[in-house]
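Thread amino acids onto this structure.
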């Protein structure tokens, strides 16, 4: 049965069809924001605040290209990777093999997130060991998402976004009543686009870890399709009517992506300001998940013992939202990739449901085993970050193909959009080149 639907033309009408961005925001705000961004503020103070804001803003253009591709093709990302120009090895395009080669490190990264969730839960209930919390966390997560339905995942992500955004903003507001209060002059100094030479390396690192990443950009394709944007647009029949529908659903997707960007930018900025205000003046920067304990201790010293529970609630939902959405997203991406490789069946709705269900149990179990074996969540997250940087370069390449090779001529964007797109591409390439130079 056809699901073709005319796109809403009003702002209020478009709000009713938002959703994929909720899942993306929940995925993005995780260990990078809670730990790495806070640590950057602790090291640099307020002076690199503008780097965080710019980093969150410029990468969204690549996300939009993947969202548009989902709408005008109606097909999943790994299938679209397999249609890219270039060499195939066996059944799969080289881009799929490159993606697969990075997944060992990515498994470590999410294993580190499992460890982070377990550490926070252990801080709240010390009578249960960290290892037991890790096992319980993945079992509960698998149970919540294995059925593969889009609706509960969107609603779960939205609830966690509301909770962690509310908690971190309340924490920031309460901070204003303490000796760590933030003043406008401090924020102003961080928005002046100046950068001391000694902080260049830190600033480039911040650009890489904040905002939407390569993984989340790939996820967006699946969530846009499951939300119905592609089905509402209908298959490309070459008619002006189809082009108008596609542009209308593009506008819905743009709003979804931009509001998502606002959420993760606000939360990331809040974590940065906490680090700059509370930890920078002391000079000591705790490493990794020790940041959680240090920040909670500072809040108890300034606001009272009750504040630790407030901060732990925020820390839990920040980390668990990533685990929850990663489980749902990875099951789809891996199922799709294995389908293209011929290792699983992913060609019908029923086969997709079965593959997602299986992988929703297998992948979290693998993350948990890796954490229990390695027991170093910070190292695991850092190693996964290396793979993320390489993946982002692949995303840039694919975005260029989508924009200039695959996009139907009738859907050509404005010059303003293309300028913003090229700013994103050049920014990411510059940061990547800098990283390579530093390694050499």
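Threaded sequence (440 positions):
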């Amino acid at each position: 049965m056809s699901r073709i639907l005319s796109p809403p033309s009003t702002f209020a009408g478009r709000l009713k069809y938002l959703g994929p961005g909720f899942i993306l925001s929940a995925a993005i705000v995780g260990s990078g924001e809670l730990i790495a961004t806070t640590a950057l503020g602790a090291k640099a103070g307020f002076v690199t605040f503008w780097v965080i804001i710019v980093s969150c803003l410029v990468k969204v253009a690549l996300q939009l290209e993947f969202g548009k591709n989902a709408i005008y093709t109606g097909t999943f990302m790994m299938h679209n990777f397999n249609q890219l120009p270039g060499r195939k090895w066996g059944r799969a395009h080289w881009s799929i093999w490159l993606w697969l080669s990075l997944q060992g490190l990515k498994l470590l990264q999410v294993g580190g997130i499992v460890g982070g969730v377990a550490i926070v839960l252990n801080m709240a209930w010390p009578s249960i060991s960290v290892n037991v919390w890790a096992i319980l966390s993945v079992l509960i997560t698998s149970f919540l998402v294995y059925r593969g339905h889009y609706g509960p995942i969107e609603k779960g992500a939205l609830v966690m976004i509301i909770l962690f955004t509310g908690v971190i903003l309340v924490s920031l507001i309460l901070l204003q009543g303490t000796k760590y209060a933030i003043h406008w002059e401090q924020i102003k100094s961080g928005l002046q686009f100046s950068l001391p030479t000694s902080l260049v390396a830190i600033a480039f690192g911040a650009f890489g870890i904040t905002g939407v990443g390569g993984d989340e950009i790939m996820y967006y394709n699946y969530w846009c399709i499951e939300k119905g944007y592609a089905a509402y647009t209908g298959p490309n029949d070459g008619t002006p009517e189809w082009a108008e529908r596609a542009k209308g659903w593009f506008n819905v997707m743009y709003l979804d992506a931009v509001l998502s960007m606002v959420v993760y930018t606000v939360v990331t900025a809040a974590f940065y300001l906490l680090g700059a205000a509370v930890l920078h003046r002391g000079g000591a920067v705790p490493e990794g998940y020790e940041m959680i304990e240090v920040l909670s201790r500072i809040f108890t010293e300034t606001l009272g013992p009750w504040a630790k529970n407030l901060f732990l609630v925020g820390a839990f939902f920040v980390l668990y939202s990533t685990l929850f959405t990663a489980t749902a997203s990875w099951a789809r991406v891996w199922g799709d990739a294995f389908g293209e490789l011929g290792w699983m069946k992913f060609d019908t709705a029923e086969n997709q449901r079965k593959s997602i269900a299986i992988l929703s149990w297998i992948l979290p179990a693998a993350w948990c085993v890796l954490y229990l074996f390695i027991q170093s969540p910070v190292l695991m997250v850092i190693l996964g970050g290396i793979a993320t940087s390489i993946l982002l370069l692949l995303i840039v390449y694919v975005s260029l193909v989508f924009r200039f090779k695959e996009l139907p001529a009738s859907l050509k964007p404005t010059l303003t959009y293309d300028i913003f797109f090229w700013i994103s591409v050049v920014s990411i390439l510059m940061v990547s080149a800098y990283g390579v130079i530093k390694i050499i």
